[in-house]
Every structure is written in structure tokens, then in C-alpha cells.
Amino acid sequence: MYKYDLRHTGFTPERLSPPLALWWKYSTDVDRDNISAPAVAGNMVYYCSLGMVYGLDVETGSKVWEFPTQSAIRTSPTLAAGLLFVGTDSGDLFALRPEDGKLGWPIGSAITTDNSRAIRTPPVVIEGVLYFAADDGKLYAVDSQTGEDIWPRPMQFPHGLETALCFVGRRLFFTDRGGVLHLIDLARRQQLRALTVGRVASPPVADEQYVYLVGDRRVMALTNRSFRLRWHQDLDGFVKGTPTLAHGNLYVTCTDGYVYAFVTRTGQLLWKQSVENGVLAPATVAGNDLYVGTEGGFVFCLNAATGEVKWKYKLDPRRTSGESRAVFNVLAPPVVANGTLYIMADDGTLYAFRPDVPDVGKPWIEEAQLVTSASDGSGIAVPLYDEEEIQALREDEGDDFKEEDYLQIKGLAARQLPFEFYALITDEGSGLVEDSIVATLDGNPKPLAYDPKTGALTVTLLEREKARVKPRLEDGNHTIMVSAKDWFGNEIVRRWTFKVDNRQPLLEPIAPAQPQMPGIGGEEGGLPGLERGYPGFGAGRRGRRGRRGGPFGGLFGGFEQ
Fold first, then answer.
1. Are the C-beta atoms of residues 383 and 368 closer than 8 Å to each other?
2. Which end of the chain has the lower number of beta carbons within 10 A, N or C?
3. 502 CB contacts (<8 Å, ≥6 apart)?
4. Residue 323 · residue 549 · CB < 8 Å
5. Half-sphere exposure of residue 161, counting CA atoms within 13 Å on the CB side?
């Protein structure tokens, strides 16, 4: 179920051994704002996207069945009492048979809320009773096996209910859209306490003594009977999900790009760790490791005791790198089950990672180019090819191959800043170890910068000197070497050679690219040498095969040799 247990601690004792590698992924179309975390049981994983409920084989990621709900799903499925329960934005709650996705209730249809208002609380089953809430402000209780009402009338509250329901024994904690924390005695169907805690109140998490939640950027611990404030801490960003409770600590993810660990009894800050991007979903603690997904499609594994980064991965790295990259977020909490980490992203893809799957692929280095200045001072990019690329092009193009189209220009003036090397570096298997990147020019280390969001590597080849001497590279051949490793130790080493002739004039700026005609380029059947969606490709020395634009956006081709 959502966050593992009735208290929504977000903790499982199951341990993985990071680093992990991609095992499989299953994709639908993009489903923005999807906060639905998968549920895992036996040999099946269940997840929701674009109004569909899917049952997948855990070993292969292949689809076993699907069920259309005809509405958006913004809550996590719950597997309990032999059925899979799913709520929808249209106010329907479905009970499905987990083995085949067929309707499981005798009534043969879904329960519909009184006013057909969205169900965005994960359903919960306690002693055969299914509880769920809706944004009509009502709390419902039905028989989990038949769908028949247990309560003649749902409990009514002033504001819509959209957050997860937290149970401790027969007491229920939840927050509403008005920022009010409620305590309900289920046995008597009676509200015991209500306290306004903030307009942005997270779903609560509780233990035997305290209830923990976040409202108005404030993390707080309240006694779970009287709601007396025990401690609080103020944050710089908003918390978008339930805090996670494990090992006597409270773990909080925040839009300021940090994960915080507080001691539950005192509120003392144990550690905070940057994950470089805003976090819009709760974390999961599995054993002694904390897993969290972020904006921009990153996954981190942190040491739960110290906050140290143990593993980092960028989802779908080739599609999410470069200037025209796709950007998506992780809005659902990670799930660890059966030795596997499951990550749901709002590109509609469910990713599965394991520590024991093979990763024999090396990182990729693509779009290699020199970046310098044109005669008017504007930026210009010159593509580079190594021997491996030249050989591949020769085999690919056969009799049409012209080596002069791909050899480096006769001489490049290297006397004006910027003069840099640029490339994209990514790894899909186990992820790129950013600290492993090394770049040299003629065997000498050079300063570099790597942007994990774009995958862009920039190496400074000419540095501005302190003395009033204009920097330059000597005439002749020069070799750039770049190496990088992934988390499983696979290493790539690439070398490119280019010629410098400072007698040559600076390159002329590239004329603006003409808009492409419909149907041109790429694998969809257009003119060879042009790639769809990137301006300025194909013409000039690049010949038949286009290449993406670099840091200045489509600046290849068309210059004189």
C-alpha cells in the first residue's frame, strides 16, 4: 500500500545494495502530475497512468492486464483483502482482481461518491472495512468484499479531503484542504480533535506518541492525543508529501532541493543533504538507505544515518540530455520490494532497478565539438570525429562516403576566447559517476564543468592568463581525451585530434538556418543528412549525416575550409 503501512511511515526493512542498474521499464504516454506510486505483491506490480490500471510481470515488466477507469487517477492503488482498490478523479472506486484486472465486487461496478467528487486518498482496509475519502469532504466506510456501505452516512467535514489517511490503532489522522489536522475515533465515529496547522499541510505520519506533519514550511511534532506541540523546525521550501519515519528519525523532502533528517523526539537536525533539484515526493527508507526522486527525473540513494550520497541516476538519460531534452519529474514515492527499486515518473514510465542485474554498457559520449568565436565575436561550434566514428561512417555510407567531409578542417585559428570542448555524456545502465570524468589536452588535465541536468560537459582549452598576454594554442595537431565511468565501473575513453593553424582567419558566423519543411529529416523518411527538430543541420561539411546543435544551438555546417 501507499508508504508501506497504515501509519504511512515510508519504511521497509528490506535492503538493497546500491549502486543499482536499470532492469526494465514500461511506458505509457506522458502523464503529468501523476503522484500514483506502484503497489507490488508476489510476481506482479500494479501501477496507474492516464486513467489505466496496469498489472505487470515483475520479472520482465511486460503487461499482463490493463483496466480502463475512464478518468484520471491521482492516488496510489492498495492491495488488501485479496483485491486491488483504486480511486479516480471522477469519484469512482474500483475493486479489481489482482490476477486478471477484472471487477471483483458482486455489484459488478465501482462505488461512486455521493457528489462524484475526486478520490485522491489511497484506500485503506482495516479489519475488513475499506476506508477512503473524497474532495467532497466525506469519509466513507464500505465492506471490502462487497462494496456495501458500513456507515449509513459518510462522515462530513467542511473541506475537501485529498491527503492519505493515517491510522494508529482505531484512531485516524488526516489533514484537509483547509490545513486542518483531524483526529477521529473510528469505533465511535467521533471527531476527538481538530487543529489548524497551516494552509499547506502534508499528510501526517504517526507513531505511538506523536503525529508528524508539515504546514506552511514548518515541520512539527504534536502529541497524538491532545495535539500539543512538542517541537517544530522551519524550512526554506515547501514539503509536497508525507514525511518518512524510520530509525527514530523523521525524513523530510523539500522543494528547496534538500532532504532533511530530524530526530523524532527532540526535533534536532541530524543532517541535510542537497539533491540538486526540488523534491516533490516523499522519500522511502529501505533498510539503512533512503531513496528519493526529484524534479528533472533524478533518483538518489542516501545513507539514512549520515545523508551521504551512495548512488545517483538520471532517468532516460539520452532523451533528457542536450538542448532539446525532455523534462519530467518524479512525483510519487519510490517503492522497494522483492529486491527491486520502482520509480514512477510523470513521463508515464515505470522504471525498475536492481543491484544484481548486468550492466556491461559503457557511458555514452556524443555531440563532440570545439566551441570558439567567429569573426564577429559570436559563438560557433565545430564538430569533432574520432577514428571510431570515421570508420562507422565509412561502413554506413559505403561508396557515398567522402572522407574530406568528416576530417578536421585544414587549420583552426585558436587565439580567441572562448575556446572549449563540448560533448554530452550520459549512462543508462547504472548511471554516470560525475566525479569520474577526466579531460586532458595533449596529456595535460584541463578544467571541466559537467551539468547533470543537460548532460553537457564543457572543457576549457584556453584559459585567461593573469598577465596581459593573449592566450593561444600552438600550431599543429592537438588531442583531446575524455574518460568517464558508470557506477558499475564500466569506463569509456575517447580521443579527438584537431589541427591548429593560427594563420587562418577566424571562422565566419553561420547564417540563420532556414525553417525545415514538413517531413524532412530523421528516421521518418525525409532528406538524408537532416535531423528533425534541430535548426541549422546538414549543410556544409557535415554532408549526409546531421548532428545536434551544441551550446550555441545549431551552429554546424556552412563554414569555409
1. yes
2. C
3. 413, 414, 415, 472, 473, 475
4. yes
5. 29
For the chain, the first-to-last Cα distance in angstroms comes to 64
Query: Cα angle vertex 197, ends 193, 202, to 5°?
Result: 105
Residue whose C-alpha is closest to residue 266's, from 311, 221, 300:
221
| Eight-class DSSP state of 455 | T
Distances (CA, A) of 537 to 307, 549, 556: 45, 8, 6
Question: What is the model's pLDDT at position 559?
Answer: 33
Residues 62/70, Cβ–Cβ less than 8 Å: no
Task: Sort residue 442 into left (φ over 0), alpha (ψ -120 to 50) or beta.
Answer: left
DSSP result, 512-538: PPPPPPTT-SGGGT--TT--TT-TT-S
Distances from the Cα of 438 to the Cα of 297, 434, 462, 482, 492, angstroms: 25, 10, 17, 6, 11
Q: Which residues pair with 87 in a beta bridge?
A: 93
Length of the chain: 561
Q: Please state the pTM of the whole predicted model.
A: 0.88
Supply φ then ψ for residue 498, to 5 degrees: -135, 160
Q: Write out the DSSP string of 225-245.
A: TT--EEEEEE-SS---S--EE
Unique residue bearing C-alpha cell 510523470: 346
The distance of Cα 107 from the centroid of its chain, to the nearest Å, equals: 39
Q: Residue 259 corresponds to which amino acid? A: V
Task: Out of 91-95, 194-198, 326-330, 470-474, pick the least confident.
Answer: 470-474
**What pairing do the DSSP bridges indicate for beta strands 21-27 and 166-168?**
unpaired
d(CA 177, CA 172): 17
Tell me: pLDDT of 200 over 50: yes
pLDDT digits (tens, 9 = 90+) for 218-260: 899 999 889 999 999 999 888 888 899 999 999 999 999 999 9
Cα 279 off chain centre by:
10
> Where do the domains of the chain lie, and which CATH numbers do they carry?
22-36+235-356 (2.130.10.10), 364-542 (2.60.40.1220)
User: Which letter does DSSP use for residue 412 in this model?
Assistant: B
CA atoms of 494 and 274, how far apart (whole Å): 31
Q: How many helices (H) and strands (E) does the chain have?
A: 1, 42
| Whether 41 contacts 17, CB under 8 Å | no
C-alpha–C-alpha distance, residues 553 and 512, integer Å: 11
